[in-house]
Specification:
Helix content is about 40%, strand content about 15%. By secondary structure, it is an alpha/beta fold. It has a single domain (about 5-180, about 205-230), classed as 3-Layer(aba) Sandwich (Rossmann fold), CATH 3.40.50.720. The relative contact order is 0.14.
């Protein structure tokens, strides 16, 4: 039986992936900040799920995941899914605490966890899937900090694969576009109307779509590695540049 460790398992992509892999016969270690949601997911998934209340900004807690015991210690797949974004205000108007929270979660915590789990992943010829974003490639107003962190994740994934060449460990950067989860609600401080407006009139990707993708990546023949994969809903594209014109 294989084991996946999912960060940010309390909602969105992480929660859907926990269900997908548990249904597929995997053991699932799920981390998150919301204890109540972890308990609910444990009640649903039973013995296949180990809930761990961890904030990715807590380096000691993150690194303790390398010390799990028993079958939970045999990690075959690390899904670095946890992440968030500050509001889409211009950089000078964004509070520093929000900027720091995003960098510590999206970059520092991800690197710290990956670093301590590498020996186990090498031992088991495992896999790392890092959640980046199309924002790593296509800029937009108000995205400087978030997009910057996701560009880091994308490049980190490529260089990590270089570091692990010859070990049998697979590394993939997954770069999705618009997907309807709690992401925008969290970003706007709980503004559900803003989220509904963003996705109105289109058919965005779902958390289930991404869970299916992660499952596909995990079950590819072990001699195949997808370096990067970018995906968008059909109704979204990268067409056009913003041009400021004189009145």
């Amino acid at each position: 039986m294989k084991t996946i460790l999912i960060t940010g398992a309390t909602s969105g992509f992480g929660e859907a992936t926990a269900r997908k892999f548990a249904a597929g016969g995997w053991k699932v270690v799920g981390t998150g900040r919301r204890r109540d949601r972890l308990r609910t997911l444990q009640q649903e998934l039973g013995d296949a799920f180990l809930p761990l209340e961890i904030d990715m900004r807590d380096r000691a807690a993150v690194e303790s995941l390398a010390k799990l015991e028993g079958p939970w210690s045999e990690i075959d797949l690390l899904l670095n899914n946890a992440g968030l974004a500050p509001p889409t205000d211009p950089l000078p108007k964004t509070e520093w605490d929000r900027i720091e929270q995003v960098i510590e979660t999206n970059i520092t915590g991800l690197v710290a966890l990956t670093r301590v789990l590498i020996p186990k992943l090498v031992e088991r010829k495992g896999q790392v899937i890092n959640l980046s974003s199309v924002a790593a490639t296509y800029p937009y107003k108000g995205g400087a900090v978030y997009a910057g962190t996701k560009a880091f994740v994308r490049q980190f994934s490529l260089d990590l694969r270089s570091d692990l060449a010859g070990t049998g460990v697979r590394v993939t950067s997954v770069e999705p576009g618009m997907a309807e989860t709690e992401f925008t609600i969290v970003r706007t401080g709980g503004d559900e109307a803003a989220s509904e407006k963003l996705y109105a009139g289109m058919k965005p990707m779902t958390a289930g779509d991404l869970a299916d993708l992660f499952w596909w990546l995990a079950n590819l023949p072990p001699h195949l590695n997808i370096n990067t994969i970018e995906l968008m809903p059909v109704s979204q594209s990268f067409a056009g540049f913003t041009v400021s014109r004189e009145a």
